Amino acid sequence: MSIEVSQINKMELAEKLESYLSGKVGHEAIKSYAWSLSDESPKEPTANEKVFWSSVFSIIHLADDEHWEDGCTQRDLGELLIQLKGGNI
């Protein structure tokens, strides 16, 4: 069963992602949070949900020491954070 992504879901994810990118939350904590959401992902997200689900699965892939050290994590998740908050890239 998938969850319907609301503005509240997006803002909650944005807050957690912001905490992660600022170093307040570690790799495992943010990855665990993303995994908990991933079980509820739809087979086909709506246009409104695409940034949310892209963020969830990007966190799972990029939240580790290797990607953090090469800068991919900060760059890619930083761009998704802007989109989650409603900004443009």
How much of the sequence lies in strands comes to under 5%
Number of strands: 0
Work out the count of structural domains: 1
Assembly state of the chains shown: single chain
Helix count? 5
Average pLDDT: 92
How far apart are the termini? 32 Å
Helix/strand-derived category reads mainly alpha
The helix-strand sequence is: HHHHH
Rg (CA only): 12 Å
* Basic shape: globular
**Helicity range of the residues?**
55-70%
Characteristic terms for this protein:
89 residues, single chain, globular, mainly alpha, 0% strand
Task: Please describe what this structure looks like.
- With 89 residues, the protein is mostly helical.
- It has one domain.
- It is built from five helices and no strands.
- Helix 3 packs antiparallel against helix 5.
- The chain is globular.
- The model has no long low-confidence stretch (mean pLDDT 92).
Offer a concise description of the structure.
The chain is mainly α and 89 residues long. Helix content is 66%, strand content 0%. The protein has one domain.
